[in-house]
Amino acid sequence: MSRVLIADDASFMRQMIRDIIEAEGFEVVGEATDGVEVVERFKELHPDVVMMDIVMPKRSGIDAVKAIMELAPKATVVMCSALGQETLVMEAIQAGARDFIVKPFKPEAVLTTLRKVLEKDRS
Amino acid sequence: MDLAKYRNLFLEEATEHLAEMARALLELEKEPARGESIDLVFRMAHSIKGMAATLGYDGIAELAHGLEDHMDGYRAAGRVAPEGLGLLFRGLEGVERMVEAVRETGEAPASAPAELLAELTAPGRAEGAGPPKKVLRRP
Asked: Is the ipTM of this complex over 0.95?
């Protein structure tokens, strides 16, 4: 079972991602509400995947990806973006994020992306 | 999707966000270059946009998006133009009214008030508009 850490300042979004992925057998090991907390929780929980919002308080999702990559260069991070954030997503991918999903979330797209990045990790 | 559950979550969180945005705009009235407040209004508008779009509340998403983009210009400029605050307060009130409609009727108005949206999205309304949007390809 893959272990997932969810980072988003909106509890609505955290709940939605949790509902989508738990229904398919993923384990949500933790949640973070800002870009500082997600790095702390990553250190503590060692998740298989981090699902990371781009726009967060205290530290942006992009800066948080950079911090996580410094700690664990092979970490798997999927960015959660919105339409219109293409430039920011490209920055996050350059910083080491593996892939992205776009809000509003479609459950199938979330699950396909998650399975794809985990498959790459195993190969 | 359990619509009622997510609608309640939306109402709860959007109401908190709107209150925070109102406080931040009042702070910006006193201190137009207060970066923390500019950032907060931007983030809250962004968050409301995402939640509303997820629930198919397109009118709310559209107006919140207008506010978000407008604030992005001010973020780039590092300060809010004092003469622009009135429009921001009207944008906030517009979103509040639409969220209230969801609370009262369970449905969101189909579209955002056209004039307000046009004012928020008019080119050059906020200083420092960002670069043109790029098309994104998956890695």
From this structure: no
